Amino acid sequence: MKLAKSLQEIQPSYIREILSAACAPGVISLAGGLPDAKTFPLALMAKSLIDLPNQPQLFQYGNTAGYTPLLEHFSNYYQLPASHSSIICTGSQQGLDLIARSFINPGDSIVMEAPSYLGAIQVFGLAQANIESISQRADGPDLEELESCFATKDITLFYAVPDFHNPTGVCWSIDVRKKVAQLCQQYNVAFIEDVPYRELRFKGEFLPLVSSFCPENSLVLRSFSKIATPGIRLGLVTGRSDWIAPLNKVKQAADLHSSIPMQAVLLNLLQHDGFEQHLEVLRGLYSERYKALLDNIALKLPASCEVNEVNGGMFIWLSLPDCDVNALAQTALEHGVAVVPSSVFYQERENVKPALRLNFTNANIDELSEAIDRLAKVIEIHCK
After folding, report:
1. Is it true that domain 5-40+276-382 has CATH number 3.90.1150.10?
2. How does pLDDT run across 288-341, given as a tens digit for each residue?
3. pLDDT band at 352 (very low <50, low <70, confident <90, very high)
4. Which of 28, 95, 179, 353 is such that its CA lies 20 to 30 A from the CA of 247?
């Protein structure tokens, strides 16, 4: 059969493609956004997992929107207003796909920061959206560019990761959050707020969601891959009920519903007395690894390699002197360290600034040190 035109134009995910090479013996991976498997709260999940065979009703077909007790928990925990509802997805990535298929027609214009999350670029590309790129600053999107785009073009939605952005780690300031919400309301642009790293803040105060300033103009995507386990493949979309209803219809056609047994296990985990302590341990560990990576970069890499400091999340953005960043990433892999080049995070490849996205959550402190030793040699080869 002939491939659909929309698929012909989509490049495979660099990160998924490199995963097998990054996991090869002797390779230290700073590439994927992988949580440390040793931190998975399996002990907290053990009782509910062992008890699954005693609950055969969980293995029957279920409601498309999700396991009712879990939905009720989310409604209370996130204090959803009466006009809002939620849908549980097979990872928040599916939630993004449901949004694209529900609200985007081929040729519709949407806005994303540049650089931006690769998975979102792929989803919106498959929906054949016209992606308008907005520059990113240290405290969030360039507001002048954003307002100009909203004012001069017919924009359907603005997708962003305001808390510890993937790939740059940037966290939007409170003023930027309020202004983006105001602009979305003023120009009737839906705001799609993706917050998979929000709970991983290890420094500073938690900031309000952008959507809290424009609740009737937003959808929020949440993930449990980073704070529970990726393998349970569960995410959540919340927002006004008339915006959630179309997602439910698309999901019915896509997969009927996400795993009910895993939803029951997740509910027990979230309600477990030890879950908050698990999050604290996770934040402490990631904070230590982040500091170790930052210290090694300062000690071993040239001053021309600039890194952004972050207060949470899983990534830092290492800006490089002018170089072929794709060739550098390939050489790095040959030297036993996997990294992701900045080029994969841009829709418009001609505006790419040479940089690397580095993950600090999966490798231990000794591995992070060795990875930067190897990367220093590669940078010396490519950045002269």
Report:
1. yes
2. 999 999 999 999 999 999 999 999 999 999 999 989 999 999 999 999 999 999
3. confident
4. 179
Residue type, 324: D
Which amino acid, 57? Answer: Q
Burial of 220 (0-12, 13-18, 19+ CB in 10 A): buried
For residue 233, the 8-state DSSP code is -
pLDDT in tens, 162-188: 999 999 999 999 999 999 999 999 999
pLDDT score for 373:
97
Rounded Cα distance, 330 and 373, in Å: 16
CATH 3.40.640.10 segments of the chain: 54-271
Name the residue among 257, 266, 292, 279 with its Cα closest to residue 365: 292
Distance CA 295, CA 39 (A): 23
Contacts of residue 25, defined as CB under 8 A and 6 or more positions apart, other chains included, come to: none
Q: How far is CA 338 from CA 38, 108, 115, 274, 330, in A?
A: 20, 36, 20, 34, 8
Using an 8 Å Cβ cutoff, are 339 and 355 in contact?
no
Span 54-271 CATH architecture: 3-Layer(aba) Sandwich (3.40)
Dump pLDDT digits (tens) for 224-279: 999 999 999 999 999 999 999 999 999 999 999 999 999 999 999 999 999 999 99
CA Rg value for the chain: 21
